[in-house]
Q: What sequence folds into this?
């Protein structure tokens, strides 16, 4: 029997508060378009993002970081529990039947913090043409089919469990 009345109900509330606070802390990083002097930062089917350097400092090194690309209408109802490579997250159905897909998976080792001096640290979204119609490659980084707008975030998974995420980017519209 607990010493203080209400102790049993207090612990779940504290755990919920801790989980909520942790989730908010993960969302401080907002993905942004690259500001590199390179050309072609936005084309008719691609855009270039800054890599999420130092965005996942509290995540285990074996976690896999995914880029989520979505149409704006999918952001409010996006579920982190639907994993990459599933029919609900396959590039080949985007944006008609799949409103968000996951691509460009890597580990934290490829996003060292801080950024090494002189290194170009960008990601080109939409650059793989060879897998665009290949349904055996549902995490394809295929060309985007229209001007958008699109929104992106980074999601860290440990196995199939979401462990951290960034905020969603502002809407990104491609050239027409």
A:
């Amino acid at each position: 029997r607990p010493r203080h009345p209400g102790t049993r109900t207090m612990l779940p509330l504290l755990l919920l508060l801790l989980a909520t606070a942790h989730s908010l802390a993960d969302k401080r990083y907002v993905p942004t378009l690259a500001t590199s002097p390179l050309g072609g930062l936005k084309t008719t089917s691609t855009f270039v993002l800054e890599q999420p350097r130092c965005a996942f400092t509290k995540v285990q090194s074996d976690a896999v970081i995914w880029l989520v690309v979505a149409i704006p209408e999918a952001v409010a109802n996006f579920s982190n529990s639907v994993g990459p490579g599933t029919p609900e997250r396959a590039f080949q159905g985007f944006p008609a039947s799949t409103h968000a897909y996951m691509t460009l998976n890597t580990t934290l080792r490829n996003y060292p913090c801080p950024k090494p001096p002189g290194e170009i640290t960008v990601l080109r979204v939409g650059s793989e043409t060879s897998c665009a119609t290949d349904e055996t490659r549902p995490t394809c980084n295929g060309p985007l089919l229209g001007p958008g707008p699109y929104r992106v975030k980074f999601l860290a998974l440990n196995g199939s469990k979401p462990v951290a995420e960034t905020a969603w980017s502002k809407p990104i519209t491609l050239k027409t």
Helices lie at 7-26, 72-75.
